[in-house]
Amino acid sequence: MLKPNPLATITVLMAAILAVPSGAFAASHREAPITALDHKADITDFFAFVSYDKPDKVTFILSVDPLLEPANGPNYFPFDPNVLYAIKIDNNHDAVEDVWFEFRFTTEIRAPNVFTGFVGAGTGIPAPGNSPPPVAPGTPIVPPAITALDGPGSEGLNLRQRYTVTLARRGPGNSVKRTRLGGHMPLFALPSNVGPRTMPNYPSLFKQALYQVGHDVRVFAGTVEDPFWIDLGAAFDSLNFRTTGFNVPGVLSDAQDADDTRNFATDAVSGFNVNAIAIEVPVSLLTSDGKKHAASDPKATIGSWGTTSRQRVFVRRQPTTAREAQADDAWRQVQRMGNALINELLVGTGSKDRFSMDQPRNDSRFAPFFLDPLLARVLNAVYGIDIPAPPRNDLLPLVTYAPPIAAAGTPAGPVADLLRLNTGVPPTPVGKQKRLGLLAGDPAGFPNGRRLGDDVTDISARVVAGVLNPSFNKAPNNRIGDGVNVNDAPYKNTFPYLGLAWDGRNRRHLDPGEVGGGPVN
Amino acid sequence: MKAIWSLTGVLLFASVALGQADVKPTPAEARITQARGAIEKHPDYYQAYNDLALALARRARETGEPSHYDQAEEALKSSFRLQPDNFEGRKVQCWLLLGKHEFEKARELARELNRRAPDDVLVYGFLADANTELGDYPEAEAAAQWMLDLRPGNIPGLTRAAYLRELHGDVEGALELMRMAHDQTDPGELEDRAWLLTQIGHLHLVSGRQREAESALTEALHLFPRYHYALGALGTLRMEQKRWAEAVELLETRYAVAPHPENLYPLAEALERAGRSREARKAFRTFERQAVRESKGNDNANRELIFYYIEHANEPVRALRLAERESARRQDVYTLDAYAWALQANGRYREAQSQIERVLKAGARHPLFQSHASAIAAGLAQRASR
Questions:
Q1: H or E segment at B338?
Q2: Exposure string over B133-157, b if 16+ CB within 10 A, otherwise e
Q3: For residues A292 and A286, what is the distance between their CA atoms, to the nearest angstrom?
Q4: Does A28 have pLDDT greater than 70?
Q5: pLDDT tens for residues A424-433?
Q6: Which DSSP symbol is given to B35?
Q7: ipTM
Q8: Whole-structure pTM over 0.90, yes or no?
């Protein structure tokens, strides 16, 4: 007879084997230790806004895979076919997804013996007269430049990705109905911008990667310039910002603060690319009753978030029947993002993975991080700034359905990190948008949803410093900023609004000390 | 399960007696030396005491020597004096509670630590261990699943998932995970590897693959000579092969290395099978004396004692009393099986059946559980036909 397993002894094994690096986030976007090790599943940013040029539509953008160096051949940075990317929407204020979109990618290698993912030039280059045997002169060697995602002109697109988009909706009795959008039409992801010889007309490729997929939905997936901007190094050097507008580090002068067109410090993400998925959806597909509502109607406000998931390894090899019935359980959520910078700036390092993997409806367990954020206490300690005493109910609009985002009378729902968007608030036209969004009186900006140009770093820091509470809406609390006020590349004014990926041959990154890079110290 | 902690000294004395001063230190010994060196250099740095406590606990597993365990607690005290309530120290404390079989307390502490840092894979391991030992398998499984979800493929997560698979009757699945854990383990971690090979051997044995079991267990003993867990498992294999004399030899060595009553009981049984009845009787008597002495403690040999009362001493009432007490404390399948067997021995077939059903419901395919279940069913049928 064998004795029961000496289970308690297993524990010892852990000491030697599980040394996990802590605080290993190299970028704002690698907020949780586990995602720092899994770039492909690492969400850098999540955006949701009423389309600037189409007030009856909402655009969602999920960026993943941080700090892609545009010159990084030969394989560049495709999406991960083993990751399930999703954009989820709660429309009845219970922090559970009611409508969601799933994106899955497949990779094809079209010319296995070619040494790079992308190659091409002009109309193609044959072997010249001095070509050594056995390759005869005139034999095609370099395919034509890449000018198409499919068909002629796509020969050099050796590494190509297709994807599918599935619309899922929760129905009666918690049933889920899934619809493949676009039927069987091929959807190709936009590849990295390799350089002008290989891809002489990248904007044309970009346009080809836009697809109408039925239900009045448009999609885009591919490599783009990273739309985010921040003085990352300064932020994570214990808030060692370069700006000194009030003779206090990290505080902008009035003039700097009012300037939405210039940077006073380095955009550490400048010149880097990111992989992004964008989807434009009619409001009527999102709300609980399929209608568009005025801003004053509780039904107008939705909550959204993005997730990445991988296939799960189960404790049980043969899942139980109950589990088998739940197909979604076959996935392990690696990360999620609702509001910007919540996991980076507020959640404790020892809870970041748990936060990443949990569902927003369970976020009350993280409420202490939200409602007495350590970041506020760090601002207090490092800069001596006055901060409100906890509980910080002034922060509730970020984590519950509450005014000024949701209409008065909207059920607050549980404490949950969702990016809340009042779909009834008309979009602010391009050119009139303010980087400080709601704080600057631009009602269509963060934290009412999030647009590409919203300065979530400055907004979040100020909100954490208490400016939603009128008695703390004063200098220097309402002037905190990293000095990076604008992206290093222009956004587009139409879907998918994202800028073209930097080309690998001509890429560069801004440094402190150069024009637009801010001071060295 | 006192085996983990209890006294032997045999190994230590042997090496001293043979003058093996140049014997290579085991992984735990090396870590003890390192930690002591660190304390000498920085006596006011709490983490060094945590490291020492953990290394001592490791050494306790290598040898079964409980004085290491007391020293570990002393080291922890120093750690908490310097930095009260420090997280790493509290984790070691949780580990020690598990070692002392204070599962309820360990679970409580693990839950608290999990609230403090929900990303700590090791703390989920403590939750899995405590709940497994207490018989709360759904909670154990949830904790083990978190381990696999947070850090796919991590070794402690794999070993716990493997054990739960085995408990739920998936021996092949368990083997798969134990092998993965073994393949990932640093080759220098000799005792860790020996432990994993012992588990692999055990799983082969449960599946009736004696040759594979033998090879795994032999390798374990080669890596870590006189390893008490491997000696026990190999002894079981020899019993199944009816090679009684060899079984006696192996189990004798194991008992010499780790002289705990639960290690004496199978030795007594082997002696009996080997036809050495006088020695067997003596061994059983010693076993009973030792087991009764520690019966009220958490770390006891009550399960063996229950079987002893039923199978060898013809004292079913005492067996039942003990089983009732033990099952009030923990509801794991091994305890419930012993309880069912004690009920059956007292003619309380219906209650026995309801307990053994709880065991089988978990899915465990242990041959002993099956034979108990059949006997209980037969007892019920016989009563009905009367």
A1: helix B333-345
A2: bbbbbebbbebbbbbbbbbbebbbb
A3: 9
A4: no
A5: 999 999 999 9
A6: H
A7: 0.77
A8: no
